[in-house]
Design brief:
Elements: H1 2-14, E1 21-24, H2 26-29, H3 33-46, E2 48-49, E3 52-59, E4 66-73
Antiparallel strand pairs: 1-4, 2-3, 3-4
Length: 78
């Protein structure tokens, strides 16, 4: 499951041009709200992930779980 999610995330990121901002959510990645929250907390601590920087984090007013993030793709030096 983790490998499939990683592949999906990389496909989403690679499908965007460098500098483009886009959102990621539990539904888009096929994760539960809790699993997405745990992943997004790591992104928040690291200010992003592999291939992107974190721009905005949204938390649900009811559960306080991170339920949406806006990220910006960057190009990796080649």
């Amino acid at each position: 499951m983790l490998a499939a999610m990683d592949a999906l995330l990389q496909a989403i990121i690679e499908g965007r041009r460098p500098g483009t901002e886009f959102t990621l959510s539990p539904r888009r990645l096929g994760l539960s709200r809790e699993a997405f929250h745990a992943l997004a907390e790591r992104w928040e601590a690291n200010r992003g992930g592999d291939g992107f920087t974190l721009v905005y984090v949204h938390r649900s007013a009811h559960t306080r779980l991170i339920d949406l993030v806006t990220v910006r793709r960057f190009s990796t030096p080649g």
